[in-house]
From TrEMBL:
Span list, region Disordered: 72-109, 213-236
Compositional bias ranges of the Pro residues kind: 78-90
GO molecular function, one term: glycolipid transfer activity
PANTHER family named among the record's database cross-references: LIPOPOLYSACCHARIDE EXPORT SYSTEM PROTEIN LPTA (PTHR36504)
Pfam families documented for this protein: LptD_N
Protein name in the entry: Organic solvent tolerance-like N-terminal domain-containing protein
Keywords annotated in UniProt: Signal
Ranges for domain Organic solvent tolerance-like N-terminal: 29-169, 171-297
Alphabetized Gene3D superfamilies for the sequence: Lipopolysaccharide (LPS) transport protein A like domain
GO cellular component: cell outer membrane; outer membrane-bounded periplasmic space
Keyword Aminoacyl-tRNA synthetase listed: no
Length: 333
């Protein structure tokens, strides 16, 4: 099933360039009233270098702006002697709807001409996997808004994997390929490929512009799709992460907690603010803000003018030296 796409100069995400090809083992249902085409059974949508697979895909289409309406008589599904049943939870018998239907391998052409229509949204249901040559995302339910170039995933085991890092979340994951912003909501964790981790209620990651990614780097097990472009994020490495709510940063020797934080992977520096607690073994320091060097594993409480640093230092604690305290600050043993 082919739909003409938006024509733009740079094909950097699913919202740009070429046609969207939708295939399925179980066949298609076409609802002319709702202007949707549903693909069942190992459904797959491909445009350029990005592929979406799921148990079921629903493509929402519309007439292109400025294109004259096509008479209903021109709508011509490919001939199919015996439509293939498509059992679903809503339709256990698999009986085809009263609208149009197509069997395996059929090509549906709304409006009779793919150049007159375009897909503006794809909904993926069940075992959702979205991938390119270098990135992949997983969830139970996904929505890709082609107009906004935004992907939203919900369900279990939400993951967005890039060559440099992995973002996981419990409740929801969002990715904007044009803004290059990824968001994890609910016990979100970013883990870099060298083992550094930051956790929070909400994590917002900002990636580098296209072309900044090292050549030839791709996650294991991901095969190039289409022309090998990377529309989901033809982006470079992670530039910055903002963390909100119950922030936790772990180093080799310390755990740092706070209300908010910002982490820059290139420098390995994280700044945590608001009710900060630094723990090393039984030693603990509390303050308003802290700087964490993820390369050295050292956390340092930064001064808050007019405030005192408080903490618990355990003598002869079988750990390394206690967390660092600014020169003008004090700790209570």
């Amino acid at each position: 099933m082919l739909f003409a796409g938006h024509a733009r100069a740079q094909q950097i995400d699913l919202s740009h360039g070429g046609q969207i090809t939708v295939t399925a083992l179980g066949g298609f249902d076409w609802d002319q009233k709702l202007q949707t085409v549903t693909a069942y059974g190992s459904a797959q949508a491909v445009r350029g270098g990005v592929t979406i697979t799921a148990d079921r895909l629903v493509a929402y289409y519309r007439k292109k702006a400025g294109v004259a309406a096509t008479p209903a008589t021109a709508i011509s599904p490919a001939p199919s002697p015996t439509p293939t049943p498509n059992p679903t939870p809503e339709n256990p018998t698999g009986a085809p709807p009263a609208d149009a239907k197509a069997a395996n391998g059929s090509t549906i052409m709304p409006g009779g001409d793919t150049s007159a229509t375009e897909i503006y949204r794809i909904v993926a249901i069940g075992h959702v996997h979205i991938f390119t040559a270098t990135q992949q995302a997983f969830g139970d339910h996904g929505i890709y808004d082609i107009d906004q170039a935004v992907m939203v995933l919900t369900g279990h085991d939400l993951r967005l994997i890039t060559p440099q890092d992995v973002l996981t979340a419990r409740d929801q994951m969002e990715y904007g390929s044009q803004t290059r912003i990824s968001v994890g909501r609910g016990d979100a964790v970013v883990t870099t490929n060298d083992g550094r981790r930051i956790r929070a209620d909400v994590l917002v990651g900002y990636s580098a512009p296209p072309g900044a990614q090292p050549a030839g780097v791709k996650p294991a097990g991901v095969k190039p799709a289409g022309n090998g472009q990377d529309p989901i994020g033809s982006s470079g490495k992670l530039e910055k992460v903002n963390a909100f709510g119950n922030v936790i940063v772990r180093t080799q020797t310390e755990t740092v907690r706070g209300d908010r934080g910002v982490y820059v992977p290139d420098t390995g520096i994280a700044r945590i603010v608001g009710n900060v607690h630094i723990t090393r073994g039984q030693n603990q320091l509390n303050g308003a803000a802290a700087i964490v060097n993820m390369h050295t594993g050292i956390a340092t409480l930064s001064e808050d003018p007019g405030a005192r640093v408080q903490g618990l230092i355990v003598p002869n604690e079988a750990q390394d030296a206690p967390p660092k305290v600014p020169a003008r600050a004090s700790a209570t043993p």
